[in-house]
Amino acid sequence: MKLAGMHYLHVTLKPTIEEICQSHKSCEIDPVRLKDGESLESNTENLRQYVDRVFSVITTSGLSCPTVMCDIFFSLREAAAKRFQDDLDVRYTAVSSFIFLRFFAPAILSPNLFQLTPHHTDPQTSRTLTLVSKTIQTLGSLSKSKSASFKESYMAAFYEFFNEQKYADAVKNFLDLISSSGRRDPRSVQRPILLKEGFMIKRAQGRKRFGMKNFKKRWFRLTNHEFTYQKSKGDPPLYSIPIENILAVEPLEEESFKMKNMFQVIQPERALYIQANNCVEAKAWIDILTKVSQCNQKRLAVYHPSAYLNGHWLCCRASSDTAAGCSPCTSGLPANIQLDIDGDRETERIYSLFSLYMSKLEKMQEACGSRSVYDGPEREEYSTFVIDDPQETYKTLKQVITGVGALELEHAQHRRDKFKRTKYGSQEHPIGDKSFQSYIRQQSETPAHSM
């Protein structure tokens, strides 16, 4: 989640975390910790506002959740519901345990570890973030006895501000959205979640052979199940497009109808041409429709940027209305996966783990060699792990052990060279400090790992 969701985390939390750090308001609600001159009521209100703000940005961020995370949450939700059929809330708690407990709460608690802040926060801000993190974690857990989940009485009292059904509903809507897998099977979410609605102008799709293809103002409504339009808000839908039938959502060139701010929702048999009120609204509709349909398996790779009029496509002049598109579809949305990691540090960690468990690797290699030539009863010391393909595993382990050994030889040589170059009285080896020199000598005398 940290790799795939880092960008999502930054977009969602960073502005609010920065505001908390910069405003530096006191939020201490423990009466024992209150400083002279501080007001418990004022601090409580400050903390409540922060929690509300963080809760709001999280629960309204469902559409920005990376696809790979949604897919995993979908699988997790389905597996948990199948395994614990008597627990109706398990489909929520299984997902919230990851997204709240292991993703958002730790990022709020230690924002510098997630690059949300450049440095460690000061003690007062750190305390504020701790209280916010505790509350958000409890809100996301959907536990039936919220106040009892706090050890501190002041936290239980503070949580009463959030003991309303609207908070539980917001969490459930958010969890429904991020675990519906966008929707490989959007109807796996029982309740439709309204994503966007508003008036726009649409062109008749030509579903009737002799119908007029004119433009009409309609009320459009998008949920995670379908995209519909009706005459007015609250009327029954005149037409519905299931989310899984949306093959692409792309802008429509102005020359098609001499109208600005138009886009097209492409379906298997036809395209729905729509004009938004302005360019901002058009982009917003294109973005949200693309997000909610981006996992559809039959999404198009190419499309027609202009309309089909008078027996041909205006863009490529092809005469068949079923002709393949002439322009590549926009990639839609960025993958939102940013590998913001220190490659050297992670590689060093992998090496250190191999080095630390070298004896176990060697034992496993020995077991692989034994099993490759011996099919008798398992020896007791080899029965603690299962090896599906002893020959291939043996080759892999040999490469790992050889690589680690080569690195250790390089490290030993580096330590010896560094020891020779280091001068007494230098910054690395100041006068009076013998620890560095003894450390270098000790390391240089350590033999490389026995191969």
From TrEMBL:
SUPFAM superfamilies: GTPase activation domain, GAP, PH domain-like. The keyword Repeat applies. This is Ras GTPase-activating protein 3 isoform X4. Residues 418-451 are annotated as: Disordered. Keywords: GTPase activation, Metal-binding, Repeat, Zinc, Zinc-finger. One of its GO terms (biological process) is intracellular signal transduction. InterPro entries: PH-like_dom_sf, PH_domain, Ras_GTPase, RasGAP_CS, RasGAP_dom, Rho_GTPase_activation_prot, Znf_Btk_motif. It comes from Neophocaena asiaeorientalis asiaeorientalis. The lineage of its organism: Eukaryota, Metazoa, Chordata, Craniata, Vertebrata.
